[in-house]
From TrEMBL:
Domain Glycoside-hydrolase family GH114 TIM-barrel residues, every copy: 36-261
InterPro entries referenced in this protein's UniProt entry, alphabetically: Aldolase_TIM (IPR013785), GH (IPR017853), GH114_TIM-barrel (IPR004352)
Superkingdom of the organism of origin: Bacteria
Listed Pfam families: Glyco_hydro_114 (PF03537)
Ion transport keyword on record: no
Signal peptide extent: 1-24
Name under which the protein is recorded: Endo alpha-1,4 polygalactosaminidase
Transmembrane stretches, start-end: none
Alphabetically ordered keywords of this record: Signal
Length: 268
């Protein structure tokens, strides 16, 4: 008797095919403006925060963890990098060498991806399938603004818009919410395609106003600030929180490692 062994990625595709009919058109999670959240991508996830949603790593988070968070009334957003190759990921061997560009500044084990590549897009489809099979409510694809960087490839802003819309369409077809990550110059153009925005240090770098189109559309902006002064100086932290409140942003002051070493929220 022959036993057929399926690769894990193929199993994800098969399972997603079974699950996808469960979702009607436009049936996915849409977080509201001023949603409360916790963002932790490293170390054992602290499940104790009374918030509306958790943003955690897709690969490192078990189905059981996601289920526990959801059972406590939380939505779960699952993080993965959509614009860079990470050599430690379980699907790293699925990328073609021709699609790997320059090393990311400060991240020696990551390389930029050629977002125009059909092979890269197939890997991202399998990652979205994995998010579906694990039970994530939505996804946070990272590094989706690489057109502004010297990646080693020659692609332009329109290529980035096309790739980001591809990700949004594929996520929504699986009943997954999707957030736009750190792409301020294209935020207005993409606010109809994405369900929320996630930005880092928008107050520090004076980029917050770029995301106003999300708020106007009734979609939240989840912001994280890392400056040490916001941790050590309560008056400085209160000042940035007042600015965040005026903009209706959901701002957290967090460690850059996103390991839950500390956490300050501008929302109750």
């Amino acid at each position: 008797m022959r036993v057929l062994l399926f690769p894990f990625s193929m199993l994800c595709v098969l399972l997603s095919t079974l699950f996808s009919p469960l979702y009607a058109a436009d049936d996915w999670y849409r977080p509201p403006v001023s949603v409360t959240w916790q963002w932790q991508l490293d170390d054992i996830v602290n499940e104790g925060y009374d918030v509306d949603l958790y943003d955690i790593d897709l690969f490192d988070s078990s189905h059981e963890l996601i289920q526990r968070l959801q059972a406590s009334g939380k939505k779960v957003i699952c993080y993965f990098s959509a614009g860079s190759y990470e050599d430690w990921r379980s699907d790293a061997t699925e990328f073609a060498m021709k699609d790997l560009g320059k090393t990311l500044s400060g991240w020696d084990d990551e390389r930029w991806l050629d977002i125009r590549s059909s092979e890269v897009r197939e890997v991202m489809i399998r990652r979205l399938d994995l998010a579906l099979t694990k039970g994530c409510d939505g996804v946070e694809p990272d590094n989706v603004d690489s057109y502004r960087t010297n990646t080693g490839f020659s692609f332009r802003a329109n290529d980035q818009l096309d790739y980001n819309r591809f990700l949004a369409t594929e996520a929504h077809s699986r009943g997954l919410a999707i957030g736009l990550k750190n792409d301020p110059d294209q935020a207005r153009a993409l606010s109809n395609d994405f369900d929320f925005a996630i930005t880092e240090q928008c107050f520090e770098y004076s980029e917050c106003r770029s995301y106003s189109s999300f708020i106007k559309a009734g979609k939240p902006v989840l912001n994280a600030e890392y400056r040490r002064i916001y941790v050590d100086d309560e008056s400085e932290r209160n000042s940035v929180c007042k600015q965040s409140e005026r903009l209706q942003f959901s701002t957290l002051v967090l460690p850059k490692a996103l390991d839950d070493a500390f956490r300050f929220s501008c929302l109750p």
